[in-house]
Amino acid sequence: MKDQPLRTSVIGSYPFPGWLEFSAQHLDQFGTTDRAELQDDAAMVAIQDQIAAGLDVITDGEQTRFDFNLSFYGFIEGIALEPASPRRFGPPAHDQRGKHEIVGELRAPRGLGAVEEFQRLKRLAGGSGKRLKVSVPGPYTLSGRLAPNQQYADRYAITEALLPIVRQEIADLVAAGAEEICVDEPSMSCYGFREDTRRFVDLFNRTVESGYGRTRICTHLCFGNFKGHPVGYRKYAPLFPAFFDLHCDEVHVEMANREYAELEIIGQIAKRTDVAVGIIDVKSYYVETPENVAESVRACLKHAPADRLVFAPDCGLSQTARWAAKQKLANMVSGVSQVKKEL
């Protein structure tokens, strides 16, 4: 953003406090008012940690979701309960997550719940002076754990059914006053090497048409972080030049975990839109020092101007222990601030 160069942000999720993890396993022991209090308290913990770190842009930490993506299935009609894990033993990874059966028409008459999350964030942090961001998964990513059937023959058919649902959620968020909406599409970046990237661009642009030009639309393109593990071919080159045509105001790319491979791509992105660079490795427990961060920021400035650059972790922080997440964010802000002073 031209009025806030080198700003600091996050993707969406934040670690759950230990007491929330415990409480989530015993929700039947809480009343409705108790659960509402739990949600407020958990969101406030994430908000306060982000404010203490000094971030320019904050979220609610997605504290009321059990997963950045799958929680939305609870709002969608026509989805059966998840089957047993196809692989229950061995190291934790993506192949342990089964697929939901589709048992009817995919509908979401109550919306996807993101508006309620934003309203809570606005109520709890509206006076903080921070920019507030809310995230929703894009329809292609949202389709990933649903099994095709006779009605929805393949993943693209499922995506097309989910697209108007996500588009309406974005419209409702805009109406609620959301000033920044991140449409998470990591499945597009994970599988773009083998799919039609122009088709992905068309899907994305039709999804965000209810918000693009009305609020700040961001997208998050990473390579997965389930249980701290990536998935797919971790190269951005196959996505471009098609992805230059995404209708958004900010494109986030994962760099730290990939040792800043393809960093030069941010210069090309910055000619068209703001670029958020992942400079904190959420998959590593090495806590980047402010000097490490400052060095990375200077490297980015060789490719893109300050008023086009945003800095964030590689991905959401839900898979990182809270003690590490807090220090990583604080050091990220400190390192970026060092370079701001140099400029």
TrEMBL record:
Biological processes, Gene Ontology terms: methionine biosynthetic process; methylation
Tagged with keyword Zinc: yes
Domain Cobalamin-independent methionine synthase MetE C-terminal/archaeal: 7-334
Coiled-coil regions, chain positions: none
Reported cofactor(s): Zn(2+)
Ribonucleoprotein in keyword set: no
Domain of life of the native organism: Bacteria
Keywords: Metal-binding, Methyltransferase, Transferase, Zinc
EC number: 2.1.1.14
Molecular functions (GO terms): 5-methyltetrahydropteroyltriglutamate-homocysteine S-methyltransferase activity; zinc ion binding
Enzyme class: transferase
Name of the featured protein: 5-methyltetrahydropteroyltriglutamate--homocysteine methyltransferase
Organism of this sequence: Prosthecobacter dejongeii
